[in-house]
Structures are given as structure tokens and as C-alpha cells.
Amino acid sequence: MATTLDNKTPLGKMILKNLYLKGKNQAWLAQQIHVKPNHICILCSRTVCPKAETLLKISKALDIDVGELYKAVAETVENKER
Question: Is the pTM of this model over 0.90?
Fold first, then answer.
């Protein structure tokens, strides 16, 4: 049985997990970091390399170490290259 996280990138899984733990949603995060809600959706489901500024904003909004976000981005890119 597939879950909603099966088609998400490592970065997306990290973002969605932390949103869930905080009882927040993607629209809330978009508002916090001043982007459109579809931008969060793209970060979660596609292999993209977000700007460092965006990762820092996500880090602050979700209280995640920015280094962990960078690791997730690296894993996302690595998975794409396979």
C-alpha cells in the first residue's frame, strides 16, 4: 500500500514530517517563508535545489537544523542521478 510520502523527495519527507509534528500545513509554511503554496509542493515532490535563503527560512520556521536540510537536498539530488 502506498503512502502519501512514497512519491516525495528526502527534503519533502523532512518538511512534511516536521509540519505534521507541529500540526501545521504547507500553506502555513508558505506564509511563514513568503512564497506561494505551490512552491512548497514543488520542494516536496520534485528534485530541485532550493536557494540557501529558502532553506534557512524553512529551518527557522520549522526549527530544523539547516545542515539537516542540506543533507536532505544532497540525498534528493543523489537519488535523481541514480
Answer: no
Which amino acid belongs to residue 69? Answer: L
Contact 59, 65 (CB under 8 A): yes
| Three cell numbers, residue 22 | 507541529
Q: CB atoms < 10 A from the CB of 62, how many? A: 19
DSSP 8-state symbol, 10: H
Contact 18, 51 (CB under 8 A): no
List pLDDT tens digits, range 28-67.
999 999 999 999 999 888 877 889 999 999 999 999 999 9
Q: Are 44 and 12 in contact (CB under 8 A)?
A: yes
Cell of 79: 537519488
